[in-house]
Every structure is written in C-alpha cells, then in structure tokens.
Amino acid sequence: MDTIGLIGGMSFESSAVYYRLVNEMVRARKGGLASAELILHSVNFEAIVALQKAGDWDMAARRLADVALRLQVGGAGCVLICTNTMHLIADEVAAKISVPLIHIIDETAKSLHAAGRKRPLLLATRYTMEHGFYAERMKGLGIDIMVPDAADRTTVHDIIFNELCAGRVHDSSREKLIDIIDRAVDNGADSIILGCTEICLILDPNRLPLPGFDTTAIHARAAVEFALGAEEEVEEEAA
Fold first, then answer.
1. Would you say 63 and 48 are in contact if contact means Cβ atoms under 8 Å apart?
2. Fewer CB under 10 Å: which end of the chain, C or N?
3. pLDDT averaged over every residue in the chain
4. What per-residue string of b and e applies to 70-89 under the rule 16 or more CB within 10 Å gives b?
C-alpha cells in the first residue's frame, strides 16, 4: 500500500472528512481492521485565507509546495491538496515534487463523464467560481460548468467561510443552497458539483434535485485507488 500525503487544514473541518473517508474506503476494500497508510500535514488556515484575500497566490503556491515536498520526503507516494480553491496553484505545487499530485478537478471530470453529465452547476468559494482556473480546466476536459449569479455566489461563499469552515451547519443555509440549485435546474444544469470540500457537510449529493458530485469523496476515492492499485496488481499476479 502506497502512503497517501494529504495537505489539509483548509479547513480542518473537511480534512477530518478526508481522513475518515480514506480510511473507510481502505477498510471496505481490504476488510478486517485495515486502514490507510497516510501522512496529514495540516496548515494554519488563517494564514492561507490571508493570502487568498490579498491575492498573493505566488506565496500560497510556495507555502503549499513546501508542504508537498515535506510529505514526499516523509514517504508519501502521492499528494492531495484537500481543498478545491487551492488547486488554483496546483500546477506550481506539482512542479516541486516528483510523486503524482492527484488533481481534484481532473478526478471530478472523470466522474462527470462516467455519468454522462456535461453541464454541471458549480457550488464553491468565490475564488473557485470566479477566478477562471476551474472553468478553464473543466472546459479542457469536455465539461461546461455553470456558476450561480453574483448574489448567489456571495451567498454560497459566505455559507462556506462564515459557517461550514467554522463547524456550523444551519438548516436555513441548506434551504438557500437548494433554492440556488432549483434556479440552476430551470437554467439547464444537468448536475451539481459540490466544489468546496466543506459543502458535503451541509448537502447530501444523493438528495438533490439533480445528480450530485461530492468532490471530497471523489478525491478521497482517487487517492485510495492509487494507494491500493500497485498492491492489488501484485496480489493478482501472485495468484
């Protein structure tokens, strides 16, 4: 089993979900008391948020690249940035390490393609919805995403940062998100991307008006597939 390297803490609420999902998936695959070989480096989210607000993505890239390299030196066979927003600088981080960086957008696009969905609504932070990196990479992978209008983007962003990242889940906010999804249905969306790793705390992807794609679960599953892939190939050859 390869060791999975997680860059977490953005926020730690979703990092805890990653840790649980990865271990549950390994146990489901291997049985018994099996759990994942992983290294989690959790950063101070307050410092990362300050860089986001300042638009200092170069410094953010250097910070996460340093963490990724530490994970590699510590034995990680792959690295995950456990947040959608910071994939804005994923290419810079990947360039600093020699092990694979498992990209959350690429893995989400694979899941959308497998389900035959091409016009998803993206619910995420303002940075992810507005900066362009997410839409551009998705378009290059054959997916044409939709985003909410400006007022609704503010609503989603504020729910993420002011509530979910602080460990608060409110029914009233869930209702606001469902209203946004209902409007997207009317505008031709064929699916929903839970494009922030905290949104799974408030929305169940299986209980939405359209098929939901939880990027946290998709990303965790890709890590487990990578970590167990080589081991299971060897087991098959031995059999």
1. yes
2. C
3. 95
4. ebbeeebbbbbbbbbbbbbb
Active site members: 83, 196
**Domain extents in the chain:** 4-104+217-238, 105-214
Query: Tokens 């999804």 label which residue?
Result: 181
Q: Which portions of the chain are predicted below pLDDT 50? A: 233-234, 236-239
The matching CATH number, chosen from 3.40.50.1860, 3.30.70.1290, 1.10.10.60, 3.40.50.2000, for 105-214 is: 3.40.50.1860
Whether domain 4-104+217-238 has CATH 3.60.10.10: no
What is the pLDDT at residue 99?
A: 98
What is each CA distance from 167 to 15, 30, 66, in whole angstroms?
Answer: 12, 32, 28
Please give the sequence-ordered ranges of beta strands (E in DSSP) within the chain, or none if there are none: 4-8, 38-42, 78-81, 120-123, 191-194, 212-214
Domains 4-104+217-238 and 105-214 alike in fold: yes
